[in-house]
Amino acid sequence: EADIYQTPRYLVIGTGKKITLECSQTMGHDKMYWYQQDPGMELHLIHYSYGVNSTEKGDLSSESTVSRIRTEHFPLTLESARPSHTSQYLCASRDGTESREKLFFGSGTQLSVL
Amino acid sequence: QKEVEQDPGPLSVPEGAIVSLNCTYSNSAFQYFMWYRQYSRKGPELLMYTYSSGNKEDGRFTAQVDKSSKYISLFIRDSQPSDSATYLCAMANPPGYNKLIFGAGTRLAVHP
Q1: Each residue of B16-42: pLDDT tens digit?
Q2: Percentage of chain A surpassing pLDDT 90?
Q3: Is B105 left (phi over 0), alpha (psi -120 to 50) or beta?
Q4: How would residue B2 be classed by pLDDT, with cut points 50, 70 and 90?
Q5: A78: burial class by Cβ within 10 Å (0-12, 13-18, 19+)?
Q6: A100/B43 Cβ within 8 A
């Protein structure tokens, strides 16, 4: 079964703070993704990576940045958190050599910026 | 207009009922159609996948795609309380299958 981990699960933080949301997977997947999900709304892709040193912005504009220095690790950083960043952030990964459609998701980080 | 429309519900049914969940879409280039299930405070997990048109069955679940009407459905037979979750449809078109377009999800509650 898939093993993809996100920490922290919940984060409440003040405006202006720098935060990093962690995402790790133990499956050796090349492709990793960050989605943003608000209640009752669609998942929106904010970043993705096809492998080490590869990062791309998704369809939804985001002030966050990502890095991919190791295959298993895909952290997301907000340099200066604002209340508008309050949302659920979901990390996902996929093995390009397997069935293309199966994304494995982490349990998400619920971020609240006061 | 959204590319994928999905009724948010909530949908409340008694245990044992047949449930029908639906999505409509506007992009005729979509070829891959998926249903994800998301339990509260969890990430989505893939439930069903269909390529192009037709039906696919897996246990109590049946996925249908009608490309002529741009309409997809998920049927759940003999629904159980453990089916209570939010169901998200998702679709993609080649070669951009990396970027799934998700519906907003339908919340389903199955009560004993």
Answers
A1: 999 999 999 999 989 889 999 999 989
A2: 74
A3: left
A4: confident
A5: buried
A6: no
What's the CA gap between B90 and A19, in Å, rounded? Answer: 30
B65-78 per-position pLDDT tens digit:
999 999 999 999 99
**Residues in chain B closer than 8 A to A25 (CB atoms):** none
Are β-strands A76-78 and A104-105 bridged in parallel, bridged antiparallel, or unpaired?
unpaired
State the virtual CA torsion across A105, A106, A107, A112 in degrees, nearest 10. Answer: -110
- Token representation of residue A54: 């590869």
| Pairwise CB contact (< 8 Å): B98 & A31 | yes
User: Is A101 within 8 Å of B8 when comparing Cβ atoms?
Assistant: no
* Dist. CA A57–CA A46, nearest whole Å: 6
For residue A6, the cross-strand partners are: A23
Amino acid at B53: S
Largest CA distance in chain B: 44
